[in-house]
Specification:
heterodimer; A: 103 residues; mainly alpha; 87% helix; B: 304 residues; two-stranded antiparallel sheet; 12 helices; globular
Chain lengths: 103, 304
């Protein structure tokens, strides 16, 4: 049966949070090069995401804060959680691409 | 840079660096890091009510990053974390409400503060002694674990806790605990929550030692599971404070740019240290909590 893009996405998501076996951890952890590449990708993504939020949402967030605290609270939580989750996903995906190029 | 929500002007680089330092602590020790971020934000000129809420918001993001790092390394006991979550929230609310009540009775604040200082200093001294004893040859008595590469000179205490047969008994496979009373786990969670309610933040510097010494959870699993608790308790705190108008999410997002990177580094660093060495490095942290209480008692402005 042909693998759909949904299946690939699902497999990638599971891979992100799946507990790695000892052998997998040993294979991936000691590489300082991989870790540095991961850090650079992650830093670039975090900083660019922040400026995106700063440019697009700053004014809107202030208005939301003044008008509706409950919605602001939910949006604030979603923003910080999304920043953590989405950037992790994107960084992991980019790392896979970079790793395949390095290998 | 101007932050219109709180109406403050703070250097974003300072916030990112502050977040970075707190992130390393979070990833390595499994703590929220309020004892650094709180004073750091306060020094930057943020009023205390904004400090508490904004700090909690940045902790949510940073702890998610650090928790995922520990999750893939098998260092998070989800079952234990979920069971503890209820107790943590109950304890946090009880601590916050209890302190509000006790504050109405003058001098009680000093008495409670003094008791907490004693408890935190004892935890710190005990951890320093125990981890040092384990590292330096008293390992004959040490309890070695097979798969988590951990050992402790006082592992016998948690074994006695495991023998308390108060049903329902549960098994925690990830923590290598064959049988433990559900009530013991809940009591530990509530105690951790009480400290969080009293001191603010996640109070990981109390919960992590409790997980290791009382429940007998391996150090690295205690760090990962504590982060799981921190995500839940700080999310709850963020929503609660944001509704009260105490969260400047823009400041939290700037801090998170540094914290997310720091957390990644902190998680990877745990790979290079065994449990006793991590605990030895952790030992001074409860003293910071004690210092915050002393500061609060002397100035009348508690860091919470």
């Amino acid at each position: 049966m042909r693998k759909t893009s949904w299946d690939s996405l699902k497999a990638f998501a599971i891979e992100l949070v799946r507990k790695k076996t000892k052998a997998e951890q040993k294979k991936s952890e000691p590489s300082l090069k991989t870790f540095v590449v991961q850090l650079v990708i992650f830093t670039a993504l975090v900083v660019s995401y922040f400026f995106l939020v700063l440019s697009f949402f700053s004014h809107w967030l202030k208005e939301l804060f003044d008008q509706n605290k409950l919605v602001y609270a939910l949006v604030a939580w979603a923003l910080i959680a999304t920043q953590a989750l989405v950037l992790e996903v994107v960084a992991a995906a980019l790392l896979k691409v970079v790793e395949s190029k390095i290998d | 840079m101007d932050f219109p929500i709180s109406g403050q002007h703070i250097n974003p680089l300072y916030l990112a660096v502050l977040g970075f330092v707190v992130g390393i602590f979070g990833g390595f020790f499994g703590v929220g890091g309020s004892f650094i971020a709180g004073p750091g934000l306060f020094v930057a000129g943020l009023p205390m009510n904004w400090v508490v809420g904004t700090d909690l918001a940045h902790i949510v993001g940073k702890s998610i990053v650090a928790m995922r790092g520990h999750l893939v390394r098998g260092n998070v006991d989800m079952k234990l974390g979920l069971i503890m979550a209820g107790g943590t929230i109950i304890g946090t609310e009880a601590g916050a409400q209890g302190i509000q009540y006790l504050k109405q009775l003058k001098l009680v604040n000093q008495v409670v503060g003094f008791l907490f200082i004693v408890v935190l200093v004892v935890i710190s001294a005990f951890m320093a002694w125990e981890s040092w004893a384990t590292i330096t040859g008293k390992g004959k008595r040490a309890q070695k674990r097979k798969s988590k590469e951990d050992e402790s000179a006082v592992g016998g205490f948690s074994d006695r806790i495991h023998r308390i047969k108060l049903s329902p008994m549960i098994k925690l496979a990830e923590s290598e605990i064959k049988s433990i009373s559900l009530w013991t786990v809940l009591v530990v969670a509530v105690i951790g929550g009480l400290f969080a309610g009293f001191l603010g933040g996640g109070a990981g510097y109390v919960r992590m030692p409790l997980l290791v010494y009382v429940l007998g959870v391996p150090t690295k699993v205690a760090i990962g599971t504590d982060l799981f608790e921190v995500v839940i308790s700080s999310s709850y705190g963020t929503l609660s404070h944001a509704i009260k108008g105490n969260v400047d999410i823009m400041i939290a997002l700037v801090m998170h740019t540094g914290a997310a990177v720091g957390a990644q580094i902190g998680v990877v660093l745990t790979q290079f240290f065994r449990g006793p060495r991590i605990r030895l490095a952790f030992a001074p942290l409860p003293l910071v909590g004690a210092g915050l209480i002393v500061y609060g008692l002397l100035t009348g402005h508690p860091m919470k």
